[in-house]
């Protein structure tokens, strides 16, 4: 198996995963979406809410804010020794208190949330949570739990994770008529000296629509895929960096496999 | 209020809402602003384009 990184930033990554099967690539994709635990606000104690948002709406907005998480510091609640009752190993308390007072409009942002743990902070500071008008007030305590994306989207660390097969396009017996150049919606085909051609970088942009293949009158183009090579794109919601998220996803698969090995070896 | 995340893909979009509204109000083209803010998928783009901030209408009544 080989990995060739094309782009890697704090929040997103693009890489070519080759020499593996679609089953494995899909396993990694699903693990990033659903099996990497993150922290998200799950319980909210509202002491005062005179804003126009209902308590439930306010709680949903708080829940969806990504919190910076660490797999080393927290354990998912169902695996915690406290058996789900809530302890410092699986929960974090955050408070939010804001008042418009005499001002006409105060927009409360995610950055106004005060966390009891300095390592657990909202990943984005400028998410508007609530719009307070003169005299309105919000005071609440929020409890964040470690949870899984397969339970609720607020615990989903990976966003828009997907892959496509590596395109393989061959030109054979091309007469350089140029019809395929115009047919391609991504404009990646160029006329070379002897045949039409696609540069290596442009090949990644191919959407495998096969319009070039259909447009060719002499059937000189064949569009296929490399079944063992995948162009992977993924984004993180901010709870982990993109790199950490991929590592965590692979580690969860590894953990599950070794768990199965343990069970099978005791039979 | 703008939803915190995109309904379809789950990307956190609310953080860019204030910049988006300010720049559109200043006369910039919404499509160009969304390109600039790195919203490439049409699911996230429609969240901005189709949003009506009802909280402004409701706010005086409570």
From TrEMBL, chain A:
Its cofactor is [3Fe-4S] cluster. [3Fe-4S] cluster binds at residues 206, 209, 212. InterPro entries: 4Fe4S_Fe-S-bd, 4Fe4S_Fe_S_CS, DNA-dir_RNA_pol_30-40kDasu_CS, DNA-dir_RNA_pol_insert, DNA-dir_RNA_pol_RpoA/D/Rpb3, RBP11-like, RNAP_Rpo3/Rpb3/RPAC1, RNApol_insert_sf. GO terms for molecular function: 3 iron, 4 sulfur cluster binding; DNA binding; DNA-directed RNA polymerase activity; metal ion binding; oxidoreductase activity; protein dimerization activity. Its EC number is 2.7.7.6. Residues 165-194, 196-226 form the 4Fe-4S ferredoxin-type domain. Its main location: cytoplasm. Binds 1 [3Fe-4S] cluster. It is found in: Cytoplasm. It comes from the Archaea. It catalyses: RNA(n) + a ribonucleoside 5'-triphosphate = RNA(n+1) + diphosphate. GO terms for cellular component: cytoplasm; DNA-directed RNA polymerase complex. Belongs to the archaeal Rpo3/eukaryotic RPB3 RNA polymerase subunit family. This is DNA-directed RNA polymerase subunit Rpo3. It comes from Methanococcoides vulcani.
Automatic annotation (TrEMBL), chain B:
It is found in: Cytoplasm. Part of the RNA polymerase complex. The keyword RNA-binding does not apply. Keywords: Cytoplasm, DNA-directed RNA polymerase, Metal-binding, Nucleotidyltransferase, Transcription, Transferase, Zinc. It holds the Pfam family RNA_pol_N. Its main location: cytoplasm. Its EC number is 2.7.7.6. Belongs to the archaeal Rpo10/eukaryotic RPB10 RNA polymerase subunit family. InterPro entries: RNA_pol_su_RPB10 (IPR023580), RNA_pol_suN_Zn-BS (IPR020789), RPABC5/Rpb10 (IPR000268). DNA-dependent RNA polymerase (RNAP) catalyzes the transcription of DNA into RNA using the four ribonucleoside triphosphates as substrates. Zn(2+) binds at residues 6, 9, 43-44. GO terms for cellular component: cytoplasm; DNA-directed RNA polymerase complex. It is an enzyme of class 2 (transferase). Its cofactor is Zn(2+). The lineage of its organism: Archaea, Methanobacteriati, Methanobacteriota, Stenosarchaea group, Methanomicrobia. HAMAP family: RNApol_arch_Rpo10 (MF_00250). Binds 1 zinc ion. It catalyses: RNA(n) + a ribonucleoside 5'-triphosphate = RNA(n+1) + diphosphate. GO terms for biological process: DNA-templated transcription. PANTHER family: DNA-DIRECTED RNA POLYMERASES I, II, AND III SUBUNIT RPABC5, DNA-DIRECTED RNA POLYMERASES I, II, AND III SUBUNIT RPABC5 FAMILY MEMBER. GO terms for molecular function: DNA binding; DNA-directed RNA polymerase activity; zinc ion binding. This is DNA-directed RNA polymerase subunit Rpo10. SUPFAM superfamilies: RNA polymerase subunit RPB10.
